UniProtKB/TrEMBL annotation:
Entry protein name: 3-oxo-tetronate 4-phosphate decarboxylase
InterPro entries the record matches: Aldolase_class_II_sugar_metab, Aldolase_II/adducin_N, Aldolase_II/adducin_N_sf, OtnC
Pfam families xrefs: Aldolase_II
Organism encoding this protein: Rhodococcus ruber
Annotated GO MF terms: lyase activity
Residue span, Class II aldolase/adducin N-terminal domain: 6-184
EC number: 4.1.1.104
Superkingdom of origin organism: Bacteria
Function in brief: Catalyzes the decarboxylation of 3-oxo-tetronate 4-phosphate to dihydroxyacetone phosphate (DHAP) and CO(2).
Amino acid sequence: MAAERTAIVRHGASLFDRRLTAGRTGNISVRVGDRILITPTGTSLGGLIPDELALLDLNGEHLDGSKPSKEWPIHVETYRARPDSHAVVHLHSSHAAAVSCLAGLDVADCLPPLTAYHVMRVGRVPLVPYMPPGDPALGEEVGRAMSAAHSVLLANHGSVLAGKTLAEAVDAAEELEETARILLLVGDRPVSMVTYNP
């Protein structure tokens, strides 16, 4: 798992350096067979150490390493809902978090398809109702939403994205943040939207 550990550290530092998550927020995991490598609790994505990543089984049982992120239920339930996914990225990026605080969002798809890249990399974005971070019920809600999407927005919280690879999940997280930024820029002005392919 050395390569996966290195990839988590590298992507975590990149996300932190580009201010896509701040302080000690956000978490990343990679599924390798029947094991999950996940970032530790209370750790900045900008200061990860490969040997300190936590190792869980697919039920969330802590097997080795540091204490896992308290958001581990989000990751475990996402892998259950999306067995083809091998990476999960959860961020508190500013624009996505801002959109997640707006009232009146469409819970079935809370970010409109404003660009072709949003359609290609993010897709539909269900809104998961607010629950405290680390609440196992939040993980269950994310799992339900992820059964029909690979991207969700957590109300008053942030984003969760799954991918077949870590690079794919990170790309989708960046694109979701960019769509949220564009949405906030256009404000109440009328917009045209890209249509989803059937």
